[in-house]
Design a protein that fits this description.
- The structure holds 3 protein chains of 3 kinds.
- By secondary structure, chain A is α+β, with helices and mostly antiparallel strands.
- Chain A has a single domain, classed as 2-Layer Sandwich (Herpes Virus-1).
- Chain A is built from 1 helix and 3 strands; from the N terminus they run βββα.
- Chain A has one helix at residues 58-66; strands at residues 2-16, 47-49, 55-57.
- In chain A, a hairpin with a 5-residue loop joins β2 (47-49) and β3 (55-57).
- Chain B is mainly alpha-helical.
- Among the domains of chain B are: 192-310 and 318-325; 330-473, no CATH class; 481-592, no CATH class; 607-680, Winged helix-like DNA-binding domain superfamily/Winged helix DNA-binding domain (Arc Repressor Mutant, subunit A); 704-777, Arc Repressor Mutant, subunit A.
- Helix content of chain B is 60%, strand content 6%.
- Chain B contains 30 helices and 8 strands.
- Chain C has helices spanning 2-18, 119-131, 141-149, 151-165, 192-196, 199-204, 214-229, 234-261, 267-273, 290-294, and strands at 27-32, 35-44, 56-62, 73-76.
- In chain C, α3 crosses α4 and α7 runs antiparallel to α8.
- The longest helix of chain C has 28 residues, at 234-261.
- The chains are: A alpha+beta, B mainly alpha, C alpha+beta.
- β1 (2-16) of chain A pairs parallel with β1 of chain B, so a sheet runs across the interface.
- Chain C: It comes from Lipomyces orientalis.
Chain lengths: 86, 779, 303
């Protein structure tokens, strides 16, 4: 017998490729979910990872960094936040 | 002193009387010859008159001698006595001859035929009339003087006694019956006969009426109008209900009528029946009015009784609704309608034997019918309460409703496509034709009817879906089910064709609001996005140097895990070619979308395969586990169950199910000689025994129950420990032990039902067994 | 949009902190009038070594609408005698609650507010602050001075405060014994005999043994909560619901007597009876509320 596969519809789930824990430290929502202001996850609500290896929703972090009180510091380690470039 | 009928003897007695009377008058008790003489002449007079008067005698006008004799008797004040004697003799004569003549020989034969009945009645009445006439004849001569008071009195007295006789005759049972039947037949002839054919009323009627008139005449003569009236009234009062219930039962099953029911009835009553009555007795408007009332009442009762059936046969039963509307006028009728309907519901609908979808359809018909009857909705509210409560208690109500709305075809849930159509038509029409009690400017506002339940709210939503949704206090249950259905549908799509699902989703959003369903929005977007990504991945221009392209046959849906319901997924070993392709797909994806990776849910999705067997070629669309399994059979045509489970990394249940599918489709068969061995059928073989395996569509997504069961596995160790200590435990003890033993930080908050489901799964997995009400560990 | 962001975040944290499994026993939290932005927090000092031990201090936390980007405010409703508590309004002067904008003393940025902080972390630091006042930023000068110079007087004042604060303890509320996270006490001594008693009488027994026999009470108690978890099916509930009622009234008196009898923490009982934290969802064992459920809607019985 010969089995010909004409079409294989597979199903997968995506997740962010970073080694950190699963919740954004600011909004406490999983990274695979959205920050409080977005509706659709994924490209529309990406992550941002710092040199200090802490990850946040980009929107959450930017919101924080735009406040004066943040002084540009990472909320977790309070070092000056710089986006990882690799 | 006895008074024999024999005139001779009577006259003798008379003689003595006269003599002694005369003697008495004189007071000295002596008899004189004159007296005897006088007595003798009186006696002969008496003789003369009585023999003329005798009932048997032929009527002939009295000659002058008789009249003279009568006059002499009158002078002697003997007329009274004469009258008494006459009355007696009439009575006995009538009893002897009259009554037997009235009785008819063959009752039953006559009863069936209207004509012979009529004839019998007429015969009876004529006989009576003749008798009357006969007996009255002499009286008319003897007591003819109108001026004399005595004469009149005498006549009256005689008439009374005659009446008494007639009464006796007419109280005869058969006669009553006949009269009754006569009238009834007349009535029946007015309308339709027993075979539901319209007798040509126009022709027959004059004849009948003439007949009746004849009877009427006789009745007048006899002076028994009262009797007749009573009989007639009686008859009609029984006839009308019977007529109504016969003629108008289930009228939607009969042919179209030219006129509305009430008009028909009115015509009947004020037409033929009225004529009948007036001919027989007299025009009696009171009676007619009463009859009309009676007819209406009967119609109403009929309507109430049939209300349940009307709902079942809606919309055919619309003609019946018009007269059901009449039920709504009085409080009592409304209450009766509600009670009867509810009882019928309980007896015929709300029990274990009915399908949930049938109940829901019935409920929708109920809504339609009662809305037609009473737009305000008070009755509907009352009547639907038991149905609603029952639906709430059923487990699969939500599922049925959701499946209906989304047009899922499922043998279990039946056809509720109406809901789907309504959903499509809905487009947010929450119409405002329902009266708003808070609108102070509405001049047409009327207060609620008296019998509205205290918590009756005028429901805005005049649509079915609204009423169904309001069954449950919160919409969450619906949303959950909808999401599951939607997820399954989306994952079964072959080529990302989401138009239908998007449309459904839009409509559902109108119903439930955007926020509840926003997860579904993300699900749909995922599929859209997957389509884009997929075409990108397959685009030959995007192949990075040094990598292989992905085979065109492999496509993927890429989901955002958190927005989809929990998946039922475990491991599976796919054909290596596919694995290879999936790896390439992931790699390409990561290049395309930096910083993201894919995790494959290997058991989900669909596969199109073509099997080329020796003598046939078959096409299938199956789930991945089945596809992988049949793929294995390419290399080897026999496998044992254990081999399969090992190679595929599937558990036994799933393997068997997949095998069952292929066996059912005559691709594989089980080896008869060796159990659990399966052979590929290169050549089609006759199936010796049919295996009925359940091929119910499997949901990719965990149902709520499964999820609960999964979560309960944590408690398995406790249950195990319990049952090791005590070998057999019924479920409620297990429940209470679990509550007690499980420490607070783990917490135990399951219901008995969830526990039961879980234990059943354990039994299925052969870790437990359920014996006579208790659970035991399986050795 | 940000309001819903902050409210959903606060709701999440609130749920965590009131979940018996994850709550901190030292804090009893309620929403003021159901407003997620204003929390009524009762701080209980459970540490036996502390001079504040036994104290029940009511406080209020207010969250800004752009939480977590701005810190909440914390103030004691009864101004506490503590170097860092303002005597005027009970407000707390702690660096973690200061956003970076404040030009408050030279505090290192590491001590400031950041969105990574949670209510939990704030509460924990408040607890430690009570033990360890920060003399450098005195809100209550007297207290600061006393702390530094006359420790005896300081301690006495504090103890008086603690005693006075006990008035605030709500009636019928039991202060947790341990400050460790929901530490499970030793399990009920499950009598060996218990397992072999007749199943029927145990479960169905309405009588509660007043001698304080652990197991019977345990069973009867769990009958109550057992029924409460079962779905509201009419007949079953009517029968069992009524039984629950009689159960509970008898239990009540028994519970009190037993509490006094055994000093050991009756974890199981308190688990059932604890009105302390408004338990989330189905954990709530509010037995007294059972009756309304079992009563059917009167109009639905009008058949």
């Amino acid at each position: 017998m010969k089995v010909t596969i004409n079409r294989w519809n597979a199903v997968s789930t995506w997740h962010w490729d970073h080694a950190q824990e699963e919740l954004c430290g600011i909004c406490r929502v999983a990274f695979e979910g959205t920050c409080p202001t977005c509706k659709y996850p994924g490209d529309d609500c990406p992550l941002i990872i710092g040199d200090c290896k802490h990850a946040f929703h980009m929107h959450c972090l930017l919101k924080w960094l735009t406040t004066e009180s943040s002084k540009g510091l990472c909320p977790m380690c309070r070092r000056k936040f710089k986006t990882a470039t690799d | 002193m006895s008074r024999p009928a024999n005139p001779w003897l009577a006259s003798k007695g008379l003689l003595y009387d006269i003599v002694f009377q005369a003697a008495d008058r004189r007071g000295d008790g002596q008899l004189f010859l004159n007296d005897a003489e006088a007595a003798r002449s009186t006696a002969s007079d008496w003789q003369l008159v009585t023999s003329w008067m005798m009932p048997q005698a032929l009527l002939r006008s009295p000659g002058s001698t008789i009249l003279a004799a009568a006059a002499r008797l009158r002078q002697k004040n003997l007329l009274d006595r004469l009258l008494n004697w006459y009355i007696d003799s009439v009575r006995s004569h009538f009893a002897l001859h009259g009554l037997p003549a009235i009785k008819s020989p063959d009752i039953s034969g006559i009863m069936s035929d209207p004509i012979s009945i009529g004839n019998s009645v007429r015969r009876v009445l004529s006989t009576l009339c003749d008798a009357l006439h006969h007996y009255m004849f002499p009286i008319s001569f003897l007591y003819a003087e109108d001026s004399s008071k005595e004469d009149m009195l005498a006549r009256t007295r005689f008439r009374h006694s005659l009446n008494a006789m007639i009464d006796i005759a007419l109280s005869d049972h058969e006669f009553q019956l006949m009269a009754r039947l006569l009238v009834e037949h007349q009535l029946a002839a007015c309308g339709r006969n027993e075979e539901q054919q319209i007798i040509d009323r126009e022709e027959d009627e004059p004849k009948r009426l003439a007949f009746l008139a004849g009877i009427r005449q006789q009745i007048d003569i006899l002076g028994v109008q009262d009797r007749m009236e009573r009989i007639v009234a009686d008859v009609y009062h029984t006839f009308i209900p019977r007529y109504v219930s016969q003629q108008y039962a289930r009228i939607w099953e009969q042919e179209e009528r030219e006129e509305p029911l009430m008009v028909e009835l009115k015509n009947l009553i004020y037409g033929p029946i009225s004529r009948c009555i007036s001919t027989l007795i007299r025009r009696d408007e009171l009676l007619e009015a009463r009859l009309l009332e009676l007819a209406t009442e009967c119609l109403v009762k009929l309507g109430i009784k049939e209300a349940f059936d009307m709902v079942i046969y809606f919309p055919d039963s619309i003609p019946a609704l018009e007269y059901l509307k009449m039920c709504l006028r009085t409080q009592e009728h409304r209450a009766q309608l509600v009670t009867t309907f509810q009882n019928a519901c309980h007896a015929r609908l709300l029990h274990c034997g009915a399908n949930t979808s049938d109940i829901i359809s019935f409920y929708m018909s109920t809504i339609k019918v009662f809305r037609l009857l009473e737009p305000r909705g008070v009755l509907l509210d009352k009547v639907s309460r038991p149905i609603r409560r029952y639906l709430r208690d059923r487990e699969d109500t939500v599922k049925c409703i959701v499946y209906g709305m989304l047009e899922v075809e499922d043998a279990n849930t039946g056809d509720l496509s109406e809901l789907g159509k309504e959903l499509a038509a809905a487009s947010g029409a929450q119409n405002a034709d329902a009266v708003d009690d808070n609108d102070y400017f509405n001049m047409d506002w009327v207060p609620d009817p008296v019998d509205a339940a205290p918590d009756f709210r005028n429901k805005r939503a005049s649509d079915f879906i609204g009423s169904l949704l309001s069954l449950y206090d919160n919409k969450e249950v619906f949303v959950k089910e909808i999401v599951v259905v939607l997820a399954n549908r989306l994952l079964e799509l072959k080529n990302y064709e989401i138009d239908r699902e998007m449309m459904h989703l839009e409509l559902l959003k109108l119903l439930f609001g955007e926020s509840d369903l926003h997860n579904s929005d993300v699900m749909v977007k995922d599929i859209l996005e997957s389509k884009r990504v997929d075409s990108n991945i397959h685009d030959p221009t995007t192949v990075a140097p040094g990598t292989y392209p992905v085979a065109g046959i492999v496509h993927a849906s890429i989901l955002s895990r958190l927005f989809w319901p929990a998946f039922r997924d475990e491991d599976l070993v796919l054909p290596s070619v596919i694995e290879e392709q999936l790896n390439r797909y992931s790699a390409k994806f990561s290049i395309l979308k930096s910083a993201r990776k894919l995790t494959w849910l290997k058991r989900l999705g669909t596969v199109d395969v073509t099997l080329e067997l020796e003598d046939r070629t078959l096409d299938f669309t199956v789930s991945p586990d089945r596809a992988s399994m049949i793929y294995l059979f390419q290399d080897k045509s026999t496998y044992t169950l254990n081999e399969l489970t090992a190679r595929l990394n599937l558990d036994e249940t799933m393997t068997r199910r997949a095998l069952g599918f292929w066996i059912k489709n005559d691709v594989l068969k089980e080896d008869e000689t060796c159990k659990d061995k399966y052979i590929l059928l290169e050549r089609a073989e006759e199936r010796k025994k049919k295996m009925l395996l359940d091929d119910a569509a499997e949901s990719s997504v965990q149902t709520a129950e499964e999820k609960a069961t999964e979560e309960m596995r944590i408690y398995w160790s406790y249950v195990n420990g319990m049952l090791t200590n005590i070998p057999a435990l019924p479920i409620d003890r297990i429940q209470s032990f679990l509550k007690m033993l499980i420490p607070k930080e783990v917490g135990y908050s399951r219901s008995v039902d969830e526990l039961r489901d879980f234990l059943t799964v354990m039994v299925a997995e052969e870790k437990l067994e359920f014996v006579s009400g208790s659970y035991r560990l399986k050795k | 949009m940000s309001k819903s962001a902050s409210s959903s975040l606060l709701l999440k944290q609130y749920k965590d902190l009131t979940d018996p499994k994850r709550a901190m026993p030292s804090f009893r939290i309620e929403l003021k009038d159901g407003n997620i932005y204003v929390w009524n927090v009762a701080v209980m000092i459970l540490n036996k070594e502390s001079i504040y031990h036994g104290g029940y201090f009511k406080a209020e936390m207010r969250f800004p609408s752009d939480y977590p980007f701005n810190p909440p405010t914390f103030r004691f409703l009864r101004p506490l005698f503590h170097p860092n508590v303002y005597p005027k309004d009970g407000g707390l002067c702690v660096s973690i609650l200061h956003s970076g904008v404040d030009a408050t003393s030279g505090e290192a940025p590491s001590e400031r507010w950041s969105p990574a902080q949670s209510v939990e972390s704030v509460l924990v630091s408040i607890l430690s602050l009570l033990e360890d006042p920060n003399p450098d930023s005195p809100a209550n000068v007297d207290a600061a001075v006393a702390f530094r110079n006359d420790r005896e007087k300081y301690n006495n004042t504090v103890r008086r405060q603690v005693e006075k604060s006990k008035e605030d303890i709500p009636a019928g509320f039991k202060i947790p014994e341990s400050e460790v996270y929901a530490a499970p006490q030793t399990e009920d001594e499950v009598d060996d005999e218990f397992w072999y008693e007749d199943a029927e009488t145990d479960d169905d027994s309405d009588e509660v043994d007043a001698s304080g026999d652990d197991d019977d009470e345990g069973v009867a108690n769990f009958d109550g909560s057992d029924d409460e978890d079962v779905d509201m099916e009419d007949s079953e509930d009517l029968v069992s619901g009524k039984r629950v009622d009689t159960n509970e009234t008898s239990l009540d008196s028994d519970t009190e007597t037993t509490l006094m009898k055994t000093s050991q923490d009756r974890k199981t009982l308190s688990a059932g009876r604890e009105p302390l934290t408004p338990a989330p969802e189905n954990e709530k064992v509010d037995l007294l509320r059972e009756t309304p459920h079992t009563k059917l809607d009167p109009h639905e019985t009008d058949i």
